[in-house]
Amino acid sequence: MSKLRDLAILGGEPAFSDSEKLHVGRPNIGDRASLLKRIDRLLDTRWLSNSGPLEKEFEQRLAEMVGVKHCVVMCNATVALEIAIRALGLTGEVVVPSFTFIATAHAARWQQVTPVFCDIDPRTHNIDPAQVERVLTPRTTGIIGVHVWGRPCDIDGLAEVAGRHDLKLLFDSAHAFGCSYKGRMIGGFGDAEVFSFHATKFFNTFEGGAVVTNNDELANRMRLMKNFGFAGYDEVVSIGINGKMAEVAAAMGLTNLESLDEFIAVNRRNYELYAEGLRGVAGVKLIEYDRGEENNFQYVVTEVDEAAAGLTRDELMRVLLAENVLARRYFYPGCHRMEPYRSDFPDLHLPETEGLAARVLSLPTGQTVTPDAVGLICDIIRAALGRAGEIRGLGAPPEV
Ligand SMILES: *Cc1c(COP(=O)(O)O)cnc(C)c1O
User: Fold this and answer.
1) Is 96 a pocket residue for ligand 1 (Cβ < 6 Å)?
2) Domains in the chain, start-ordered, CATH in brackets?
């Protein structure tokens, strides 16, 4: 890592060398000795999966932390969403935001339920209950709200719509582990909520996910489903799938839980440094978090306003890429513009989602991103905007 001299896109040396390349979603890893001790023990006992002691302990810890009756951990959040969708008996259509990771839509579609996309509130980036209401049909059986960037969506608004139309309410809370809404931890809302513990999330179990709920019967159904429908050694009572979490993943989860506060503190430190470094930069606006709530600060998301910045989001992304900073344009271009949904709904136009998808740029953060690196990234952004004319003059650089 060097001081910024000349922008790499304009012929200078990259600020970060190839080996220092920065990524969005580089995994956070807790105490190695503690993890290895757990792995040693699980190897000794040869209990590698199927309701092992680590899985049970991990589920208990999570349920306590979130303040829910049941936590059912699974192999990943996509399968957890599918199992929740199926266990809730969703059929026909479910309303989902298009501004989300594709798994939200795919999980429904994989269960033969049509995801019907609705637009967002551009201020919060989250599903807009008023827009939900507009796309309901007699076939609608549920709503899947997503807490994008960990900022809770309008839970009360969605609950009101769901209640009035007798719809199930599920939350894709993949981003929102450790966040709160009106003083209560995310996880206890709606019929159920789903967390992701994928490697790229700030808290990971290598791969993993969980459904949390206060509904006893639903939790039971999901426990059967995630283990082929087995109710006893030789007794299968319903159709199921293999959605189990491996013990080694639970070992990682328990270990990373011990460092959860530290992960959040690092994310928060980086977020504040970005906020400071980008203060007064016209055209690059950092999203804000409600300081009255718990936040995990895992995403440093900016909105690039071309008119004020002098550069498009994609141009700024290319500037950063040339410096070996891999910023990401989550969730471009929006689920409704990816297959199979683009073909399913060729005429669907979601102006707020499409506008936002053209503006957002997510910057690297987490354990692997140092304060100096954040400072340098902010310097690059400032320099890029200062030399916007020259960068634009380069014409269309290669596709990223
Ligand atoms: C990561 C993510 C998922 C999928 O999680 P996996 O554990 O990788 O299956 C689902 N929804 C959203 C919003 C996500 O960000």
Assistant:
1) no
2) 8-22+259-327+364-391 (3.90.1150.10), 32-257 (3.40.640.10)
